[in-house]
Write a structure and sequence with these properties.
This protein is of the alpha/beta class and 312 residues long. The protein contains 12 helices and 12 strands. Strands 8-7-6-9-10-11-12 form a 7-stranded parallel sheet. The protein starts with a strand and ends in a 10-residue tail after the last helix.
């Protein structure tokens, strides 16, 4: 009989279909509750599929006595307890992919949208308001300063695109990069003060949680814009909402939030913010690559081979 697999969260539908073709596949959303689905399938499940963002809690793994492998559709980072899986001898596999390009596309798209006011302009036309008068003006990108918080792979891709718009690029991070000529700022407040648009691309960790606080937003100022394609926790939620509401910053473009998929009503009510549903890496090409690597990991494990893309 084919090995039994538990899929813990909804992932790319063709990937689920491929699993169902080759394995006995249990999905937590089939049935009265996820807990019931886990309990029903627990005695025979040998593999668990989750996403990098969703991960898996230790108590779920404890409920699966024959679990051999956790497959992350994406990268687990801090969402899987790697020390615990190692202790139990559970393999953890990932699907490495190149998301810097699509995420940078979204970051710069949000910057262009919020500075040129495309979202507001769309609502203006749809509401039939154009015959009553011209739409309010947006801002040029040409000649403005793009400040990047975290000049890693995504930040570098953002910088390349910003330069194509003839923007000046500067950045903040834990250290100066020796291989770039962009201006460096040691702290986020100084960077924000210098920026027309501040784009957040840094990792989310203990050091960056709440990094973009009221002081940073005040330094960005009433003419400044904020874009976040990193993680919601990096920005002080209450401070951002207040700054947008009171026009202490000009606007924001957000692809990530504090309690996804729940977005505060205070944000959805504002005109000076563009909201997208965490689509930074959501392209067909990225999902197909992850599916291929997930299936490759699974096949290797069940044929007694080391997984080609281990986590940790």
């Amino acid at each position: 009989m084919n090995p039994e697999i538990l899929v813990l969260t909804r992932i790319f539908p063709p990937a689920v279909a491929a699993l169902e073709k080759e394995y006995v596949t249990h999905k937590v959303w089939d049935g009265p509750s996820p807990e019931a689905a886990i309990q029903r399938s627990a005695p025979k499940v040998r593999a668990l599929v989750t996403s990098g963002l969703f991960g898996v809690k230790r108590e779920v793994m404890d409920a699966l006595p024959h679990l051999e492998i956790v497959l992350c559709f994406g990268n687990p980072r801090s969402t899987v307890d790697l020390a615990y899986t190692k202790q139990r001898g559970i393999v953890v596999a990932r699907t490495p992919d190149e998301i810097a390009t699509p995420v940078a596309d979204v970051a710069v798209g949000l910057m262009l949208n919020i500075m040129r006011r495309f979202g507001e302009a769309d609502r203006f036309v749809r509401a039939g308001r154009w015959p009553q008068g011209a739409f309010a003006m947006g801002r040029d990108l040409n000649g403005k300063t793009c400040g990047i918080v975290g000049l890693g792979k995504i930040g570098c891709e953002v910088a390349t695109r910003a330069r194509a718009f003839r923007m000046r690029v500067c950045y903040q991070g834990p250290r100066r990069k020796a291989d770039v000529d962009y201006d460096y700022f040691a702290d986020a407040v100084s960077l924000a003060r210098e920026s027309d648009c501040l784009i957040v691309t840094c990792p989310s960790n203990a050091e960056t949680r709440g990094l973009i606080n009221q002081n940073v937003l005040d330094a960005l100022g009433a003419e400044g814009f904020l874009v976040n394609v990193a993680r919601g926790a990096i920005i002080d939620q209450a401070a951002l909402i207040a700054s947008l509401r009171d026009k202490r910053i000009a606007g924001a473009g957000l692809d990530v939030y504090w309690d996804e998929p729940n977005v505060p009503a205070e944000l959805t009510a504002l005109d000076n913010v563009i909201l997208t549903p965490h689509i930074g890496s959501s392209t067909l090409e990225v999902r197909q690559e992850r599916m291929r690597k997930m299936l490759t990991n699974l096949k290797a494990h069940f044929t007694g081979q080391p997984v080609p893309y281990p986590a940790g």
